[in-house]
Specification:
The protein is α/β, with parallel strands linked by helices. It is built from four helices and four strands, in the order ααβαβαββ. 42% of the residues lie in helices and 14% in strands.
């Protein structure tokens, strides 16, 4: 999970029996360069969750990261973000059967590729 998202979101995902790592859990913490985050996701077979549109560009140009959740909620409270993830987590997990890029906004999910 990218630095722009709260660490407690990773803990919420873990509480739902899914493994999650926040950039704060990495050796370089929140200053981990984007390319190292992508490499980590590839090595560990992880989904990257981010608000950073540069990762979407990388996904479309190079398919890196291989699986991406792009959070397009704009400015919402952490509580609202957590509510959105709790409400949509089963759908997010199932959506990766159909695509590798999932967009989450205030209204639900869009499966892109």
């Amino acid at each position: 999970m990218d630095a722009q998202l709260p660490r407690r979101l990773a803990r919420l995902i873990e509480a739902a029996n899914h493994d999650a790592v926040h950039t704060l859990d990495l050796p370089l913490r929140n200053v981990t360069p984007d390319d190292q985050i992508v490499d980590f996701c590839a090595r560990e077979d992880r989904v990257l969750i981010t608000k950073d549109l540069e990762f979407a560009d990388s996904f479309f140009l190079r398919r890196e990261p291989a699986r991406l959740i792009l959070v397009l909620t704009g400015n919402v409270s952490n509580k609202e973000l957590e509510r959105l993830f709790q409400a949509n987590l089963p759908k997010i997990v199932a959506a990766f059967d159909f695509g590798a890029l999932i967009e989450l906004d205030r209204y639900g999910l869009t499966i892109r590729a």
